[in-house]
Every structure is written in structure tokens, then in C-alpha cells.
């Protein structure tokens, strides 16, 4: 299959050949941090080995439009905020330097980054040094809502639904958790990979923007090697009871409706594009860490429909989906802008590889169950879909549960190899 455009494979030098694949990843990450370059490390659901992309410069990572999901578009890692702003720029880290832990004998360098080769070659041959500091956002820490404040937000959402201004809205909040003094983002990343084998696990670090870590269950838009487009409607939450088979879960009317609205929104996007040939499976109950959700999967065989740009068009229509914004979309976004009282930044934005590891394969996820690192604390984020039947205490409890997905790795866990 075609590789992303013209990569030059640098062999891993003999001088440091004894480094394990994960030590090589760490060495490359340290190099990127020390030279102030944006980087993204990710591990795809159901796989074991992470990949790394390093962009040649910060400037090269700024972008305007959402990425194009076609095989001829640039390869890289997209990192988009919930809402574009100067504080939270849309980013696309070009795959200038690419490392796959599954193929640790080479490091790939793109043509645009050829000038990095001499310094990179020298760095690879050097004995690894201690990691340097990870970048933090230059913005002040967002306000962390109290239970009373969050309950007031939920009540305002329910009132807007009762008044028929909105059908559904997904309110959210930030929480501040202390970090252990020896907290290591790469160890936390490895812990997330181990704890959530079916999640898309990511660690993204960009000078001035900050460092984000997460394990999300929600696909936003995916184009696979066999020419399939996929998306999903994920909503409704309940705790996974130890030993319970997900398919035995019983859902309340409230969650069934909440999820059905997300599915309906996706169908309306297909309709806008006049696409009728899609497969819809579900809703069924799926586990995401310690939680259960309702999920409907949508699939389109791109080889059988006259829509070569379906992935790109759907991405632009879908974000932000009603699983993180609401319905009607614009009214829900306006409500959140007015009432939520904090900046979501990259939480509930989207992220993931485009045309990686090969052209024609892209996997974008909604940035949920994530946190942002700051010098001695992490900012965690969680939201809940509100409907007319929402109860503030239950919604607060649901956010508490969601916070524990990423929060689980903030405290020392079983040792990990990275
Ligand atoms: C907004 C979040 O989750 C979304 C995805 C699944 C279930 C959800 C819910 O039950 O409200 C949310 O729509 C979050 O994790 O912060």
C-alpha cells in the first residue's frame, strides 16, 4: 500500500540499538520536547503498539479547515478544539517524523522535514537523557464548577428544553486534580493503553497549547483501507457493574431518547449529502472502561456510492455532534457558550491520524475522557447529555464517573514499561 508521501526511512543507529522499542519512543519524544516541536503519540483501539508523529515546527501545525479525509491529502495528526479560537487553534501536525513502536528499526522522515535529518540522526545515536518539561497551556486554568454550579447549569438546560429552545444539550464541566510530583505523561499514556484496550489513547503536546492525554471510546469519522466510511452515535451512560454482560443492561427512556437523537442527527447529515446507501447497526450496549453506553454504528461502502469526498464532508457536518453539543446544533452551541462558564478547549473537539499509517486510512475520534496537564495538577473534563427528564444530582454523578476514566492514571499504578 502507498506510504504517506515520500518518506525517507532512517535506520535506528547502532550506537543506541540496545534501547527497547518503548525506550526509543521516549527518546524521540524527549528530542521533540527539547526542540519545541509539536508531537502526538497514539494507540488505536484493539492494537498494542503506539505511533508517534512529530511536526517540524509549531507554525507547520497551524491549520484552517478540518482535514480532508482522502488518500491524496496530507498525512498527519489532527487536533481540533471544540470551538476554534485564538487560544485554542485548530492543529494538524504534519507527519514530518513518524515512528511506529511495532517497527522500531527505522524512523521515517518526510520530504518537507529533510533538513532535520542531520540533527535527528545525531540525536538518535545519543544516550537518552532525562525528559524535559512538557508544555503547558498559556491560558489560566479553567473554572472548575462546584456541584451547586453544575446543578444550576443542568437546571438551565432542562428549562431551555422545556421552553422548546432546545431538544437536547450536553453540558460539561472541568475538574482540577492534583498530580503526583513524579507524574510521567508517557507512563500515564502506557497505563491508559493497558487499562482501556478498546479505547483510542492519545498524548498530544504542543508548545503554547499544552499537553493533553485521553482514552476516548467515540469514533467521529473513520475511513478504512477497504474503502469503508464509519461513524457512530454514542450516548447514554450507566456504570458497568462488575461481572455484568453489557448486553443485559437495561436503559431508561431518557437514555434511549438521548442516544436516538444523536443517531437521528447522523442520519440527517447523510440526508443533507443526499446519501441513502448506508448501513445502520444498533443501538446496542457497549462498554467503555467502567461505563456502559448505547451505540449505533453507521457504515458506508465508499466503492459503491458516488461520493468520493464523503469522509471529508461528513467530518465537516458532524463536528461537534449532538453527543457533545446538542440539538438543534447552533442553538445548543449558543446555550453552552452563554451558560457553561468555562472554556472546553480541546475537550469534545476531535483528534486522530489522517492518511496514517498509509494513505487512504484516517481515524478521527471525539476527544472525550481526557485531561490537560498543568505544572502540578491535571484539568479533567466530562459532560452529560441533558433531556427534559434530567436530574441535576444524577448528571453530576455521571460526570464524576466519567472523570475517573482518564483520572484513573493520575495516581501511581502498576508499573509500566515505557
Ligand atoms: C460528553 C461525554 O460523553 C458523551 C458520550 C457518551 C455518552 C454521553 C452521555 O451519556 O451523556 C455523552 O454524550 C463525556 O464523556 O464527556
Provide structural commentary:
The protein is of the alpha+beta class. It is built from 8 helices and 19 strands. It has helices spanning 21-34, 117-125, 147-162, 185-195, 253-272, 310-318, 329-339, 392-407; strands spanning 7-11, 39-43, 51-54, 76-80, 91-94, 97-100, 106-110, 168-178, 200-206, 210-216, 219-223, 228-239, 279-288, 291-301, 326-327, 350-354, 362-366, 370-373, 377-386. The strands form 2 sheets. It has an 11-stranded antiparallel β-sheet with strand order 1-7-6-3-2-9-10-18-19-8-15, with helices on both faces. The protein has an 8-stranded antiparallel β-sheet with strand order 5-4-16-17-11-12-14-13. The longest helix has 20 residues, at 253-272. The radius of gyration is 21 Å and the shape is globular. The model is unreliable at 413-418 (pLDDT under 50). Bound molecules: the ligand C=C(O[C@H]1C=CC=C(C(=O)O)[C@@H]1O)C(=O)O. The ligand C=C(O[C@H]1C=CC=C(C(=O)O)[C@@H]1O)C(=O)O is lined by residues 170, 172, 218, 234-237, 293, 323-324, 368-369, 382-385, 402.
Task: Spell out the key features of this protein.
19 strands; eight-stranded antiparallel beta sheet; 8 helices; binds the ligand C=C(O[C@H]1C=CC=C(C(=O)O)[C@@H]1O)C(=O)O; alpha+beta
Give a short summary of the structure:
By secondary structure, the protein is an alpha+beta fold. The chain is built from 8 helices and 19 strands.
Amino acid at each position: 500500500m502507498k506510504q504517506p508521501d515520500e518518506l525517507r526511512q532512517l535506520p535506528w543507529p547502532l550506537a543506541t540499538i540496545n534501547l527497547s522499542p518503548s525506550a526509543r519512543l521516549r527518546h524521540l519524544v524527549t528530542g521533540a520536547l527539547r526542540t519545541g516541536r509539536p508531537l502526538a503519540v497514539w494507540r488505536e483501539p484493539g492494537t498494542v503498539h503506539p505511533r508517534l508523529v512529530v511536526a517540524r515546527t509549531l507554525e507547520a501545525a497551524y491549520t484552517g479547515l478540518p482535514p480532508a479525509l482522502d488518500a491524496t491529502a496530507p498525512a498527519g495528526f489532527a487536533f481540533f478544539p471544540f470551538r476554534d479560537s485564538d487560544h485554542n487553534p485548530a492543529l494538524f501536525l504534519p507527519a514530518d517524523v513518524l515512528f511506529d513502536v511495532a517497527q522500531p528499526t527505522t524512523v521515517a522522515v518526510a520530504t518537507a522535514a529533510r533538513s532535520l535529518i542531520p540533527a535527528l540522526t545525531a540525536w538518535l545515536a545519543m544516550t537518552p537523557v532525562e525528559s524535559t518539561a512538557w508544555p503547558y497551556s498559556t491560558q489560566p486554568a479553567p473554572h472548575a464548577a462546584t456541584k451547586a454550579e453544575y446543578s444550576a447549569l443542568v437546571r438551565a438546560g432542562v428549562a431551555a428544553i422545556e421552553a422548546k429552545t432546545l431538544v437536547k444539550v450536553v453540558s460539561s464541566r472541568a475538574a482540577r486534580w492534583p498530580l503526583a510530583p513524579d507524574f510521567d505523561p508517557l507512563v500515564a499514556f502506557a497505563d491508559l493503553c493497558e487499562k482501556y484496550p478498546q479505547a483510542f489513547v492519545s498524548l498530544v503536546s504542543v508548545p503554547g497549547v499544552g499537553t493533553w492525554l485521553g482514552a476516548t471510546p467515540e469514533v467521529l469519522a473513520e475511513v478504512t483501507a477497504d474503502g469503508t466510511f464509519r461513524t457512530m452515535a454514542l450516548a447514554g451512560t450507566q456504570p458497568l457493574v462488575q461481572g455484568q454482560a453489557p448486553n443485559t443492561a437495561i436503559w431508561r427512556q431518557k437514555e434511549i431518547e438521548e442516544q436516538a437523537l444523536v443517531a437521528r442527527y447522523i442520519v440527517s447529515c447523510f440526508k443533507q449529502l443526499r446519501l441513502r446507501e448506508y448501513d445502520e447497526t444498533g443501538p446496542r450496549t457497549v462498554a467503555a472502561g467502567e461505563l456502559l453506553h448505547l451505540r449505533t454504528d453507521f457504515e458506508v461502502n465508499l466503492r459503491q456510492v458516488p461520493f468520493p469526498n464523503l469522509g471529508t464532508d461528513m467530518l465537516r457536518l458532524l463536528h461537534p455532534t449532538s453527543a457533545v453539543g446538542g440539538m438543534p446544533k447552533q442553538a445548543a452551541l449558543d446555550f453552552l457558550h452563554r451558560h457553561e462558564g468555562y472554556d472546553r478547549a480541546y475537550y469534545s473537539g476531535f483528534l486522530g491520524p489522517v492518511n496514517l499509517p498509509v494513505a487512504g486510512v484516517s481515524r478521527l475520534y471525539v476527544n472525550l475522557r481526557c485531561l490537560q496537564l498543568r505544572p502540578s495538577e491535571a484539568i479533567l473534563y466530562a459532560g452529560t447529555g441533558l433531556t427534559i427528564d434530567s436530574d441535576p444530582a444524577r448528571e453530576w454523578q455521571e460526570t464524576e464517573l466519567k472523570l475517573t476514566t482518564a483520572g484513573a492514571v493520575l495516581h501511581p499504578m502498576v508499573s509500566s514499561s515505557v
